[in-house]
Amino acid sequence: MSRIPDHPTDPRPAVLSATVACLAAFGAAIVGSTGPVQRAPLLLAGIGSGLYACGIVLRRRRYRFVGRGATIVGPLVVGGALVGIIALSPPLPTMLPVIACGLGVAFLTAGLFPIVVRWARQCAVFGVVLLLGGVLANVVIAAPSIWRSATAATLVVLSWDAADRAVSVGRELGAGATTAPVEVVRTVPSVLVGGMAVVLTVGASRIPTAGGTVFGVLLVLVATVAFTLVLSHIPHTSES
Q1: pTM of the entire structure?
Q2: Helix, strand, coil shares of the chain as percentages rounded to 5?
């Protein structure tokens, strides 16, 4: 049962949902990538974003020296990874999705583990938009397998859903509340919806059709999952 303070004073995003959102975003970037030229910088960008997030958490728990170091090193690792892919000068269709996905994961992490709380939602949304753009660009250009494409697109939507939940729960309950039970209850249905969406999309892709593309199938998938998750948020919004 959640311990809810009478007057929440700290609207920081809830840590559990923020972590789920960042992991889903990183998973989307990796699953949607093709080849070591794309995966290597994305792995480094994910490691850098993770260092930054750990640094923020450590600073909140009074390990300020270690936390401050991690929040400095993390962005440097992300920047180094993205500069590295530019220095390698791969073809633009290979490089641009990597930059979009890497920046997307970084902005999402910065929004959910913020230094300035009032910019949390805007920063997180910007990160998700960049990530979605990078994933869809890779689908069109590199044409990964349908299950990889469907999984990556679904993980992007799940990262958006978890990010929105992290910000909303943080504002509703504050950092003084035990939010894990609330977050778990709201996360499980989203994961089930996403899993079913991937299964149905892969199944539908194996049905012979007269036309259509993987990109079109993915747009339908993203729209369907997003619509379902938005509907699932309506009762929570009306109750708050």
Answers
A1: 0.79
A2: 80, 0, 20
